[in-house]
Write a structure and sequence with these properties.
about 425 residues, alpha/beta, UDP-N-acetylmuramoyl-L-alanine:D-glutamate ligase, Protein-Tyrosine Phosphatase, Chain A, 2 domains, 6-stranded mixed β-sheet, 16 helices, about 20% strand, globular, metal ion binding, ATP binding, nucleotide-binding, tetrahydrofolate synthase
């Protein structure tokens, strides 16, 4: 457990500004010895799939024998999930030790305004990976790309762009072109860029940015991907010359993410990394990313999923249609006010028979009772639960062994569900 002082400081940071000042953040890192300049990074940005692609790349590189730092966000249960080496999370002792270093460095500024929560975590991550001599750091942006704290790095091994669509429109822009511009901000001069196939207006931005930066641009080719088997136990597929690849991540979109990860590995091979085909097969098969079509209980089947925007909702809808056709679907749903939850509901709720609404533990959450009337247009039975535990108990009481309970909408509450479920069974 963190000390009270650490918890209080993290809470203070979480309520401060979320807008990074890269010039000021650079000064902080200079005081800390510029640990980021000693790291070789694979830098990822995008709207959906960043965490999955990052975990797939990391798993392959680990199988190839490299020491890999993995920096992701958000976390489901503990902030230490964001900073790991291989499969091992940063210890609370190391986290607090490095947090103290960052606070000491921040105290040297005449301007005493707080750095953002994400800036502090990013500084801790850079220090941790540097002192542990990681061979590669797989580095996921927090929000956007151009002004993201991770974009302080100047020469990554490569830039990776996952699917780009609408999300965080208040910060990134109201059009795909504006959002793509922010995401493409991680593209650096002469550095290879690997992208998921994108919408035409997004593609235009990425292509023109790469041309201006003289950066080689590669895409994964989904026409080269064929599905062999797709069950709740995992998926098997072919991609280009790789035959019978397997992943345990569910949903066809995860096979597409795996194809993007393979393209990144191909670029790293060109850059001189030693990665045998065996490492690709084993890494993909071992990769795990909690909270994304993640089965946490059987009979009844209980899944948690981080779908909170339109693209995530489309992937969830496709998965429900494929895996659970004809099943009784019970939803546990909660959302933040600043998400496009209207479209998320429109895409998912008609596939369910029961919706139980909860209020995520965030000041940005929309109250469950305020959502109730809206969802009644889509789903036959709708309930608003006072607590997440109450909602979970209600879902279980309404389910039989053949039912499927799906909790989704906000990562702010799905991370709590595995522990809550244990108390309900």
């Amino acid at each position: 457990m963190f000390t009270k002082e650490t918890n209080a400081y993290l809470e203070l940071l979480s309520t401060s500004s979320t807008h990074s000042n890269l010039h000021r953040f650079k000064e902080l890192l200079e005081i800390l010895g510029n640990p980021q300049e000693k790291l070789k990074c694979v830098h990822l940005a995008g709207t959906n799939g960043k965490g999955s692609v990052a975990s797939l790349i990391s798993a392959i590189l680990q199988e190839a024998g490299y020491k890999i730092g993995l920096y992701t966000s958000p976390d489901l249960v503990s902030v230490t999930e964001r900073i790991r080496i291989g499969d091992i999370l940063i210890s609370e002792k190391d986290f607090e030790r490095l947090l103290f270093q960052v606070r000491e460095a921040a105290s040297k500024f005449q301007n005493k305004s707080l750095f953002t929560y994400f800036e502090v975590l990013t500084a801790i991550a850079f220090l941790y990976y540097k002192e542990n001599n990681c061979d590669v750091v797989v580095l996921e942006t927090g929000l956007g790309g151009r002004h993201d704290a991770t974009n302080i790095i100047t020469a990554p091994l490569c830039a990776v762009l996952t699917t780009i669509s609408y999300d965080h429109v208040q910060r990134l822009g109201s059009t795909l072109k504006e959002i793509a511009y922010e995401k493409a901000g991680i593209i650096k001069p002469s550095i290879p860029t690997i992208s998921y196939p994108q919408e035409p207006e997004v593609l235009d931005v990425i292509t023109s940015t790469c041309q201006m930066q003289n950066a080689p641009l590669y895409f994964c080719d989904l026409k080269e991907l064929t599905f062999i088997n797709n069950t709740l136990e995992g998926q098997v597929f072919n991609y280009k010359n790789y035959q019978k690849l397997s992943i345990q991540l569910l949903g066809k979109h995860q096979c597409y993410n795996a194809a993007l990860a393979i393209e990144v590995i191909e670029v790293l091979l060109y850059l001189g990394f030693t990665i045998r085909s065996e490492a690709i097969y084993k890494g993909l098969a071992k990769a795990n990313w909690p909270g994304r079509l993640d089965i946490i209980h059987h009979k009844p089947l209980f899944l948690i999923d981080g779908a909170h925007n339109v693209q995530g909702a489309l992937a969830l809808r496709d998965a429900i249609t494929y895996y659970f056709k004809g099943k009784k679907i019970i939803y546990l749903f909660g959302s933040l006010k600043d998400k496009d939850y209207h479209q998320v509901l429109e895409l998912t709720m008609p596939l369910g028979q029961i919706a139980i609404l909860v209020t995520p533990p965030s000041t940005r959450a929309i109250r469950a009772d305020l959502l109730q009337k809206q969802i009644q247009n889509y789903c036959p039975q709708v309930f608003a639960a006072a607590t997440l535990k109450e909602g979970t108990e209600l879902a279980l009481s309404l389910a039989d062994e053949e039912s499927v309970i799906i909790a989704f909408g906000s990562l702010y509450f799905i991370g709590e569900l595995p522990k809550i479920l244990e108390t309900c069974l």
